[in-house]
Every structure is written in structure tokens, then in C-alpha cells.
Prior knowledge:
By secondary structure, this protein is of the alpha/beta class. It is 30% helix and 23% strand. It has two domains: 4-217, Peroxisomal Thiolase, Chain A, domain 1, CATH 3.40.47; 225-380, Peroxisomal Thiolase, Chain A, domain 1 (3-Layer(aba) Sandwich).
Amino acid sequence: MEKLYLLDDAIISPLGFSTEENMQHLRAGKSGLKLQQRPKLSSRPFYAGMIDNAKLNNAFSSLDDDGQFTKLEKMCLLAINGVLEKNPNLSLSDTALIISTTKGNIDLLQGPQNVNKNRVVLAEFGKCIADFFGFKKTPIIISNACISGGLALAVAKRLSATRDFKNAIVLGADLVSDFVISGFNSFQALSSEPCKPFSKSRNGINLGEAAAAILVSRIKPEHDQSVSLIGEATINDANHISGPSRTGEGLFRSIQKSLHVSGISAEKIDYLSAHGTGTRYNDEMEAIAFNRTGLGKVPVNSLKAFYGHTLGASALLESIITKQSMLNNELFASRNFEEMGVSKPLNILRNNTKVELNYTLKTASGFGGCNLALVFKKETL
């Protein structure tokens, strides 16, 4: 079985500028969501998780202070730098860079900024990130709606299996831009309160912004314990441009296939990290898919009430937290969960829990009918 080992990581989010700081706030039950006012884009206030610009600029000044980078680029560069600081001897001449994002620098379309407008093109955005650190390989850009971050891990696993590279840094990032706000507002999907995934009273999503980066390798690390990606699958159900399949068909098949690739049954899964956006149709679809695959009793949570939906970063961010949960044998309560609001039974985590975690499953779904499932395994020497 081909495996991809998850090594050092870094998270830049409203909950902190390192993975360690993010984990501390998750343990404390702290959310990064705050009420936002954008009267030109939304007629009512909405909650979102946004990174403070002053704090970001202050942190970034240690890397560069010439002001030639967008907010998104600063987030990305800080995340990658957090990984490189832990791996000072990593050779960037033969390390791949895989970047996931849905909208990239789309805010450059709004008006003048002191940066090259060509970086609104994803390839140019990726080149900017790669050139800053001196990566020699052309960056691989993954932009497939809200499964992008997890799909980037899947692509890394597939490429490592072909021996295209030994190591890669996988990066996921997106902003709460005016374009994104207006788009979700047009669907009437923005919640005026903190989101409540899987709850009966849920009424929409909270947006969020983050950058997450992780070093991955096909070589097993010399640690007492590590985490590997052993199975992945993505199925597009082609149901609707924005609405998920009512039967969860694409997600159901993604989970089935990822378990088959992993060589394990659903009974082996100790924890399920759901997409859990807090919208009526997404949560219902996931509940159906989980039950169709025999996962209805597995402990499950959503992290969206901590971060908001970080779009192209979400599945990678949540995979990193899943990895940390496995190494620490800890699970976090699904924040804001109240009364069950889906038609199929789920074992929603109501409290932080200590439990042995050996196999976990991360799922994600997105516009256009895309679905993804990742299976992670705890490895020992």
C-alpha cells in the first residue's frame, strides 16, 4: 500500500499564527468568528472568521516589509515559512509545491493595489509564492471548489506514488473577499449568527479565511508515532451547480472507494471529520452518506463554528487538525451543536474527548457536485 506521511505543519488563522496556538484555542473552545458589517454586500450583518490585518502585517514584517504582497500572499508565505523553520535542511530544489485555493487573489480585480495585477491569475499567484522561497519545481495549482485542500493532499499522494518527488509542501488558502461574500449572499446562505452544523436550528454558513501548510513525504519519519494518508477518493455526482445530491451519492461512493483503497472496513474508523457547513442541504446529505457507509455511530464533528468555511483551505486545515488529534488522542466538541437536525442518526461530539485514534476519515464536498474522502492511519515504529 502506498502511503503519504504527514510531517510538520503550520496554520495561519484568526485563532493564531501557528498550529500549536490553534490547537490551544480549540481545546479552550474559542471561536474565531465575529460579527461583520458589509452593507454594500449584505443587507444584514453576518458572522465570519477573518484575520486581523494589523496583526498579519506585524507578523509578516519579519519576513518582508516592502509591501509588495497581498493579504492572501502574506498568509501563504507565513504558513510555508512556519513549515520551513522546522525543516531548515529541506532542499527546495527537489521539493514539490502544491497549492489549493478557490479564488486566490481575486480581490485584485477590485482596484489599485501596490502589487502586480497579473497575480490574480492562479498560475502567477503560485509562481509568486514559489519564487519567494526559491522552489525550483513549477507549482501545482488545485482549484476544485471546497474539496481543493483535501484534493491537494490526494494529488500529493498520487504523485509521490509515481516517484515524481520524495517531499512536497501542500498549501491551502482563501480570503473572505467581497466576491465571496456577495456570491454566498446571493444564495441567501450567510448566517447572521454563529453556524450550527447538524443542528435543527441551523440557518447557513459562516465564511472564514486561513492559510495552512504541511510537509508531506513518501518516506516514513523516524518518530515514535506519525500519521499517514493511506486512502483517498473523489467522486463527482454532477447533481447541481451548487446543491449537493439529496442521496449523498457522490460522498457515499468517495467514502466507499477510499476505504477500499485503504484496505479497511468502516468499522475500523475511530473518528469522522465532517465538512459540516451548517447549511440545511449539505448537513442532511452528509448524514445520509455517513449512514449509508455504516458510519452513523462513529464520533463526528465539524470545525466550521471555530473557523468558518475557509473554502479552498478548509479540507487541508481540518486534515491538519485531524492529524494533530490523532497524535494527541483528542477530539473536539462540535461547537454550537444543539438538537439533532438531520434525518439520520449521527454521533455528534458534544464535549472534548480523550480517545485512542488509529484510523480517521476526513470528508469534504463542494459546488459542482465534487466530493472527497481521505483515510488517515496512525503509524508506529
